[in-house]
Specification:
This protein is of the alpha/beta class and 400 residues long. It has a single domain, classed as FAD/NAD(P)-binding domain (3-Layer(bba) Sandwich), CATH 3.50.50. The protein contains ten helices and 19 strands. The strands form four sheets. It has an eight-stranded mixed beta sheet with strand order 5-6-4-14-15-16-13-17. It has a six-stranded mixed beta sheet with strand order 8-2-1-12-19-18, with helices on one face. Strands 9-10-11 form a three-stranded antiparallel beta sheet, with no helix packed on it. A hairpin with a 2-residue loop joins β9 and β10. The longest helix is centred in the first third of the chain and has 20 residues. 47% of the residues are buried. Bound molecules: flavin-adenine dinucleotide (FAD). The site of flavin-adenine dinucleotide has 43 residues, from α1, β13, β17 and α9. Keywords: Oxidoreductase. Its EC number is 1.5.3.1. InterPro entries: FAD-dep_OxRdtase (IPR006076), FAD/NAD-bd_sf (IPR036188). GO terms for molecular function: sarcosine oxidase activity. This is Sarcosine oxidase subunit beta.
């Protein structure tokens, strides 16, 4: 079969879809069409904090993130206007939460993922602008850091176009075309597009789109928000910090500012029931700004004397077991899915795109991703999970 004649349609122009398009276009193995119902990046991708750490919860996650960390560095060389901020990532724990994470240290050693365990005194010495409480323990990832979505998304979209990807914005995909039990294309509001493979990266809209084909995945969406301060008098030299004991995270931001994210544990999940749902409809209480200030000022004293600049709200998607869902779907050959990257879909995107492109090209991946398989869930358990409405604190808590 002449694979150069084949067409792959990617649904969704967030970082997962763009990254898949980029890897496929570089392989030159097929014609690539990427479709988004809005502008590229208009989903959660442009709203992300862009923090990445390689110190995750499973072997597959750790191995995948090692590839992402390497690819972010390579993309810094390749994409005009983008650079990965290699400031390191510091994961903070208190005495209650540390034992669970400590159990994962042998996994990191086995996988060759570098880390350092730091006490509060050492953290204060390395980063004098941070004032961790004496009980805090830091798990430092020297390879971690962050990306600015406002740089990364347009730079990756530009590169995709240069590589020949046909990016179609403001076109709603209304369903899949299925013939003889296989995916044969997609339908938009205006046309039918024939395809040999379809990659669904529509994130929070996955279940509402794929339900039409009888595919239901145990995925919950929750609202999440991040805030950026105005410029400080001098930029802080700090890593990206996942501060679970403080209910959020902080990192430096472009223009000498600081970016904070805050969780809303008591808020219920967000149900997406319409294909046309827009993230601009999301709301969050104004009081969250003050909550960040009161939680974080003892830790980042500079926050006391700076005002807020901007706020962005989006969605996080979590699977029932907390791990991403990425791979082919057994009941519908030709369909590949990437979703449920917990709060780390930005961090995963370089490797998610690489793996999805490998699957489309030859059905194999360079690392074992069985643990991410869409087929790993029991359908009755999935249905029960989808039927209950949960609060955010009841989805797996996995930061970046
Ligand atoms: C406030 C906030 C902070 C975050 N911080 C981090 C972080 O620090 N690190 C990290 O790794 N991750 C972070 N995340 C998570 C991250 O943003 C997501 O995991 C990631 O952006 C998911 O990318 P995606 O491409 O899979 O989905 P999206 O970016 O949501 O893209 C999906 C796209 O599909 C399109 N679409 C949907 N339905 C259709 C349809 N029917 N037809 C056509 N197009 C359709 C949408 O318009 C959208 O553009 C954060 C998220 C939020 C909200």
């Amino acid at each position: 079969m002449d694979r150069t004649m084949q067409t792959t349609v990617i649904l969704g122009g967030g970082v997962t879809g763009l990254s898949t398009a980029y890897h496929l276009a570089r392989k030159g193995c097929c014609k690539v069409i990427l479709i988004d119902k809005g502008a590229v990046g208009n989903g959660s991708s442009s709203r992300a904090a862009g923090i990445i750490t390689g110190l995750l919860w499973s072997e597959t996650g750790v191995l995948a993130r090692q590839i992402s960390l390497q690819l972010f560095r390579e993309l810094s060389e390749e994409l005009d206007g983008y650079s990965f901020r290699a400031v390191g990532a510091l994961n903070l724990f208190d005495t209650q939460s540390w034992p669970e994470r400590e159990r994962l240290l042998p996994l990191y050693r086995r996988c060759g993922a570098p880390f350092e365990v730091l006490d509060a005194e050492e953290m204060r010495y390395r980063w004098p602008e941070l004032q961790p409480r004496d009980e805090f323990i830091g798990l430092y990832d020297p390879l971690g850091g962050y990306s600015e979505p406002d740089e990364y998304v347009p730079a990756l979209a530009r590169k995709c176009r240069e590589l020949g990807v046909d990016i179609r914005e403001h076109q709603l995909v209304t369903g899949l075309v299925v013939r003889s039990g296989k995916v044969a294309g997609v339908r938009t509001a205006h046309e039918t597009i024939e395809a040999d493979a379809v990659v669904s990266t529509v994130y929070a809209w996955t279940n509402v789109l794929l339900a039409q084909e009888g595919i239901r995945l145990p995925v919950k969406a929750v609202v999440h928000q991040r805030y950026v301060t105005q410029a400080l008098t001098a930029p802080l030299a700090i890593p990206a910090v996942n501060a679970d004991p403080l209910g959020g995270y902080v990192r430096p931001a472009a223009g000498g500012r600081l970016l904070f994210g805050i969780e809303t544990a008591e808020r219920e999940e967000q149900r997406i029931t319409e294909l046309t749902y827009q993230l601009s409809a999301l709301e969050a209480p104004d009081s969250l700004k003050e909550e960040i200030r009161s939680n974080f000022t003892p830790y980042v004293p500079s926050l006391a004397c700076v005002d807020w600049d901007e706020r962005r709200l989006g969605l996080l998607t979590f699977s029932m077991d907390g791990e991403p869902i990425l791979g082919p779907v057994e009941c519908l050959p030709g369909l590949y899915i990437g979703v449920a990257f917990h709060s780390g879909g930005f961090a995963y995107n370089p490797v998610s795109g690489m793996l999805l492109a490998e699957l489309v090209e030859n059905g194999r991946t360079s690392i074992n991703i069985e643990a991410f398989s869409p087929d790993r869930f029991d359908q009755a358990e999935t249905d029960a999970y989808l039927a209950e409405t949960v609060k955010q604190k009841h989805v797996a808590r996995r930061r970046h």
